[in-house]
Structure formats: structure tokens, C-alpha cells
């Protein structure tokens, strides 16, 4: 039995104990914000990742020997992409949302003339920006009315949850500020003491714009989808307030 096959067998035979151990580690290292994530939601998310890792390793085990060494970073990111598709798919209002935001961010990065590695990093951040939505805030999207202030605060808590989830992951830790501040207004209104303006990471400012634009194009339980022109009008109104005014013009070139 190859080392890859042995690892697959170990993961399959010990999935539940491993899951419980990982959950304990996440709770211990993730910070107080994870108290908002229910045990069942966290278990489902982590188990989805574990199953995907097993699937990827099983594919690798069937590859030529020189290709059998698993790329941990690639496996993790692929698992996150699948998990975000799963999270988005929990509501008919958010299905495909993250994929669209990733596309928008990549397009704007290209229009800005950023390097391919920089765009790859921004797209990676866009994939994981809503990872904190494994908490109860995802269910708020289905409410047939605008959110109250308390509900809005709860929904936006996913930025803190997501940042704490990726903090222990070495190759994602540098994206913690992007995830943490991707809903922070450019003018800093409502978030005293936090970064504002160009102090905010470029990735956070880009995702803020792309996320809001895409959300307006999607229907919600309490409103129909906006037309592209209406969405762009709202984006223009937010220039210098919610959005970086230097990025707003790029929205007009998005599909």
C-alpha cells in the first residue's frame, strides 16, 4: 500500500475522531468570535472539507508516482471553493454568489494592470471572504424583509468569524485583514478605530465593491434583482462613502 493510500485509509477510518479533534483546535485557536457559530454548522463545514481532502487524495493516489505528493495548499483551497459553493447553495438567493465575486475581482485586477500572482492572491481572498457565513447569519438572507439593525450586525459578524477561521492557516494568515475588513466602509463611518480609506487592504476594498455589485444583481426575499444600470447608480452613489472612489469606475466595465 502506498503512502498516499495509507493516508486515505487513515482519514476514512478515523474521520469522526479527527473531526472532533479539529473542532477542538478551531475553538481553541479561533478566538471568541467563533462562539457565534453553532456546533452543527461548524461540524458540517469541517466535515465537508475533510471529505473533499479524502477525495482529492484518492485522485492523487491514482496518478503517476511523481504526481502523488499532495499539494496541501491546493487541496485546502480547492476544499474551500467547494465549501463556499455549498454555503452559497444553502439559499436560492446566494447560489453562485462567491464565484461571481471572484470573477469580478479578477477582472478589476486585470483592468488595473496588476500582476498575475497579485490577481491570483486577490481571487483567493475573494473565494474565502464569506467563509464566516457558516454561522447563523446565512439564514438571514431568506428573510422576506430588510434586516433590522441587530440582524444586520449579526450578519456582518461573519467577517470576524471568517478572519479567525483562517488565522491559524499559515498560507492564508496574510489575508486575515482582507477578510476582516471586506465590509468596512471606505470613509470609516460606523467603524471607529478601524482602518479607513487607503489604510484598508486593496483586497478588502475590491471585494467590498464586487460583493455589493453582485448582491444588487441578485434577488432577495424582500426585493427583486436590480438591473445593471440601477446597480451601477447605487455603486456611483457610494463612491467615497462605502466604496473606494478610485475603484468605482471599474465597476462599469463588469458584466
Describe what you observe in this structure.
- The chain is an all-alpha fold.
- It has one domain (3-251): Hypothetical protein af1432.
- It contains twelve helices and no strands.
- It has helices spanning 3-13, 15-29, 39-61, 72-88, 97-111, 116-128, 149-156, 158-166, 176-180, 202-217, 228-237, 248-251.
- α1 runs antiparallel to α3, α5 packs antiparallel against α6 and α5 (97-111) packs across α10 (202-217).
- The longest helix is centred in the N-terminal third of the chain and has 23 residues, at 39-61.
- The mean pLDDT is 80.
Calculate Rg over CA atoms: 19 Å
Question: What form results from the Cα inertia axes?
Answer: globular
Number of domains: 1
Task: Give the CATH H-level superfamily.
Answer: Hypothetical protein af1432
Helix content: 55-70%
Low-confidence stretches: none
Say how many strands there are: 0
Task: Briefly note the CATH topology name.
Answer: Hypothetical protein af1432
Structural class: mainly alpha
What is the CATH class designation?
Mainly Alpha
N to C succession of SSEs:
HHHHHHHHHHHH
> What proportion strand?
under 5%
Between the first and last Cα atoms, what is the distance in angstroms? Answer: 50 Å
Mean pLDDT, all residues: 80
Number of alpha- plus pi-helical segments: 12
Amino acid at each position: 500500500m502506498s503512502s498516499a493510500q495509507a493516508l486515505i485509509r487513515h482519514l476514512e477510518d478515523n474521520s469522526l475522531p479527527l473531526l472532533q479533534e479539529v473542532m477542538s483546535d478551531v475553538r481553541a485557536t479561533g478566538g471568541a468570535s467563533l462562539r457565534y457559530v453553532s456546533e452543527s454548522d461548524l461540524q458540517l463545514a469541517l466535515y465537508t472539507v475533510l471529505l473533499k481532502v479524502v477525495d482529492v487524495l484518492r485522485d492523487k493516489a491514482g496518478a503517476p508516482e511523481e504526481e502523488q505528493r499532495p499539494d496541501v495548499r491546493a487541496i485546502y483551497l480547492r476544499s474551500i471553493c467547494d465549501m463556499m459553493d455549498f454555503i452559497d447553495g444553502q439559499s436560492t438567493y446566494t447560489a453562485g454568489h462567491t464565484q461571481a465575486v471572484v470573477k469580478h475581482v479578477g477582472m478589476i485586477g486585470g483592468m488595473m494592470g496588476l500582476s498575475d500572482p497579485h490577481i491570483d492572491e486577490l481571487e483567493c481572498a475573494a473565494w474565502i471572504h464569506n467563509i464566516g457565513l457558516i454561522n447563523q447569519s446565512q439564514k438571514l438572507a431568506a428573510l422576506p424583509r430588510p434586516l433590522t439593525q441587530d440582524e444586520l450586525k449579526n450578519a456582518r459578524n461573519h467577517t470576524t468569524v471568517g478572519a479567525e477561521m483562517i488565522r491559524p492557516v499559515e498560507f492564508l494568515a496574510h489575508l486575515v485583514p482582507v477578510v476582516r475588513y471586506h465590509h468596512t466602509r471606505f470613509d470609516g463611518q460606523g467603524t471607529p478605530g478601524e482602518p479607513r480609506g487607503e489604510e484598508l487592504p486593496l483586497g478588502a476594498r475590491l471585494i467590498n465593491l464586487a460583493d455589493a455589485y453582485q448582491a444588487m444583481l441578485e434577488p432577495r426575499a424582500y426585493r427583486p434583482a436590480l438591473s445593471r444600470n440601477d446597480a451601477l447608480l447605487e455603486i456611483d452613489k457610494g463612491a467615497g462613502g462605502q466604496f473606494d472612489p478610485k475603484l468605482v469606475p471599474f465597476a462599469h466595465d463588469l458584466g
